Amino acid sequence: MGLPWLGETMDFYRAQQANRLFEDFVRPRIARHGKIFKTRLMGSPTVIVSGAEANRFFLSNEFKLVMSSWPSSSVRLMGKNSIMEKHGEQHRHVHGLIASSLGSSSAESLVPKLSKLVQRHLDAHWSGQERIYLYNFTKNLTFHIVFECLLGIDVELGMKEIFERILEGVFAPPVTVPGTRFSRAMRARKEIERMLVRIVRKKKEEMERKNSGGGGGGSEEGGVVLLPRYVAAMLRGEMSEEEVIDNIVLLVFAAYDTTSFAIAMTFRMLAHHPNCYQLLLKEHMDVKSRKGEGEDISGEDIKKMSYTWKVARESIRLFPPIFGSFRKAIVDIEYEGFTIPKGWKVLWTTYGTHYDPEHFQDPMSFNPDRFEEAMPPYVYVPFGGGPRVCAGSQLTRMNILVLVHHVVTRYDWSLIHPDEPITVDPLPFPVHGMPMRISPK
Ligand code: HEM
After folding, report:
1. Cα(1) to centroid of ligand 1, in Å?
2. How far is it, in rounded angstroms, from Cα 185 to Cα 72?
3. Ligand 1: distance of its center to the CA of 134 in Å?
4. 350 lies in which domain range?
5. Mutate to test the pocket of ligand 1, among 390, 395, 403, 429 (most ligand atoms within 8 A of CB)
6. 441: number of CA atoms within 13 Å, CB side?
7. Residue 366 counted as domain residue
8. Do 231 and 281 touch, CB atoms closer than 8 A?
9. What single DSSP character describes residue 367?
10. Cα separation of 9 and 12, whole Å?
11. What total of structural domains would you count in the chain?
12. Does ligand 1 come within 6 angstroms of the Cβ of 321?
């Protein structure tokens, strides 16, 4: 358990910062103690578990045996009404709203809009350039995708910078003394709240006007777009204004660094594996060759990008954007002959199965074809599992496939630092922002 209070926190942070949390912290302890062991992190006694069975047990028993557990700074910055703090029926309602906007067929219907947005961003930021920074570019793009495609909100001047200040404080110590990361983030949170309140109220007025003019319930407005659906839920009395605002902030947090890192690592793997790149390129050139002059890709075309999705999934297996996440035992839990006392934390990890030769033969090698075979549940878990499974995995898929399509069909590219170091703060990212040489085809 390490030192009193501090436990093994310093070792944990050091390994995390070098993006070697699994290799330097978890794996040596698994070798000593087995796949379930205890430690103390940031004052909390914590059990770290690895393996598909542990993933299944802890992820599927959310609300029954465990509850997700976020640092208090994250909760205060996302807001206490966001999905991360909802349990039981209330959680199911908000998760259902997001997931039904983003199920696989709904997400496919976003493709035309997504494709236009991606092309607009490539025209604005890549045209005439010889060097771009892929990671930074995808962060900006993801921000616009979440707001414009998913939520149906126009990005206003300064909005992204305000959000970045919020996200910087999400895992910082919750110290409100002026000048700290957390207090800057709290100020930014208030700023964005003011902007979002104005936007949500305007939408509400619009929808109320339509309803009183006989325009119907409003819930169908915008199809899969989330803001009208949130506001319709508000009008039906199922969601408060605070819930809407907090869940908008949460979605940006959930999507921003994760998607950008997944895209960056997909390109890194393509740069390292030219044979895979040739196969992927052919897939996209085939899609393009079937299109008429100026005709854009559709949801149907996405289904023809199966090799690209295997490449992306394999890249995400090797470089999961989320290391794992914390749960808190809400009762004493009997597991594998041990008792985990109520109140203790449990940390499950993606690496515990992704790097295990029992599940992935030669796990450190890059082999997209391994995804041809069906995978047992709770083995491939970059998006988690159980009731809190990621609500945005389909949007992530569309985002990656559409971006890869337009990049590889329009540009030749190469990485300036093919082995650019990755650091973690608190999510992983390439330290130089992934500079890339590009030239139009
Ligand atoms: C590569 C990209 C992504 C990865 C790796 C990822 C990963 C995850 C993981 C592991 C969880 C579960 C956390 C837990 O169990 O504690 C999660 C939850 C969630 N994700 Fe994602 N995510 C990604 C992209 C997105 C996007 C694009 C969105 C939406 C725009 C999104 C929305 C959410 C939401 C709302 C939850 C909370 C679900 C709940 O608590 O019920 N994610 N994500």
Report:
1. 30
2. 13
3. 22
4. 1-79+323-379
5. 390
6. 9
7. yes
8. no
9. -
10. 5
11. 1
12. yes
Nearest to 401, CA basis, from 124, 114, 113: 114
How far apart CA 297 and CA 295 sit, in angstroms, is 7
* C-beta of 114 in contact with ligand 1 (< 6 A): no
Report d(CA 341, CA 109) in Å as an integer.
Answer: 46
Radius of gyration of the chain (CA): 22
Residue 56 inside a domain? The answer is: yes
pLDDT of 414 over the 90 cut: yes
Interacting residues of 358 by C-beta distance below 8 A, sequence separation 6+: none
Residue 17 included in any domain: yes
Residue 313 lies in a domain: no
Q: Please tell me whether residue 18 adopts helix, strand or coil conformation.
A: coil
What is the three-class DSSP state of 216?
coil
Report pLDDT for 104.
Answer: 67
3-class secondary structure, 129 = coil
Bridge partner residues of 423 (DSSP): 429
Here the CATH number for the domain that contains residue 41 is 3.30.43.20
137 C-alpha to ligand 1 centroid (Å) = 21
How remote is the CA of residue 389 from the centroid of ligand 1, in Å?
7
The reply to whether ligand 1 has any atom less than 6 angstroms from the CB of 249 is no
CB contact at 8 A, 390 and 383? yes
Minimum-distance ligand 1 atom for the alpha carbon of 142: 27
Non-local CB neighbours of 321 within 8 Å, separated by 6+ positions: 257, 258, 259, 261, 262, 382, 427, 428
Does the beta carbon of 258 sit less than 6 angstroms from any atom of ligand 1? yes
Q: Taken in order 146, 152, 154, 159, is the CA torsion positive or negative?
A: negative
* Residue 439: its H or E element: strand 435-440
Side chain identity, residue 70: W
**pLDDT for res 102:** 77
384 within ligand 1 shell (Cβ under 6 A): yes
Q: What pLDDT, in 10s, does the model give residues 431-440?
A: 999 999 999 9
Tell me the per-residue pLDDT of 318-367, one tens digit each, with 9 for 90 and over.
999 999 999 999 999 999 999 999 999 999 999 999 999 999 999 999 99
- Ligand 1, atom 40, residue with closest C-alpha: 388
What pLDDT shows up at residue 36?
96
96 has pLDDT over 70: yes
Protein residue with its CA nearest to atom 13 in ligand 1: 384
Would you say 428 and 19 are in contact if contact means Cβ atoms under 8 Å apart? yes
Say yes or no: CB of residue 391 within 6 Å of ligand 1: yes
Give the model's pLDDT for residue 172. 84
